Amino acid sequence: MALPSISIHVGRTKTSGADHDQVVYLNGRSVNALNAWLAAARIDKGSIFRKVDRWGNLSSRPLEPSAVNVIVKQRAEMAGLEPGDFSAHGLRSGYLTKAANRGIPLAEAMEQSRHRSVQQASSYHNSATRRTGRAASLIS
């Protein structure tokens, strides 16, 4: 049985030019979660992640990039964790670390994370693979 799959057009990002529409792909449970959110929020076009006012009304306007960081910190605090230990940047770097831990090649992970700099992406990816790599076990 095939996994549900979807492509998401993220549009212009801080590292892409105005003429480049960035695309990421999801499959499996994340597609189901996204579809549930879109149905619950009654979103059929436009931005997936949107502003919610203090009364819980969903806006047609997208979240500001800085709002993601605020949300991550608030959710960490709600979970009883130290909010200073978490950030929106950590989501992206954590993705590369998890990809490395699962043996996903750096180039493939960068396609999904939309990192443009191999040097930056490899700093997250390589530190994770060094812990479990064959070279680490040579000194024993």
From TrEMBL:
Domain Tyr recombinase: 1-137
Record keywords: DNA recombination
InterPro entries in UniProt: DNA_brk_join_enz (IPR011010), Integrase-like_cat_sf (IPR013762), Integrase_catalytic (IPR002104)
Alphabetized Pfam families for the sequence: Phage_integrase
Polar residues: compositionally biased ranges: 118-130
GO MF term (any one): DNA binding
Keyword Manganese: no
UniProt signal peptide: none
Any one of the GO BP annotations: DNA integration
Secreted found in the keyword field: no
Family matches, as PROSITE patterns: TYR_RECOMBINASE (PS51898)
Location of region: Disordered: 110-140
UniProt protein name: Integrase
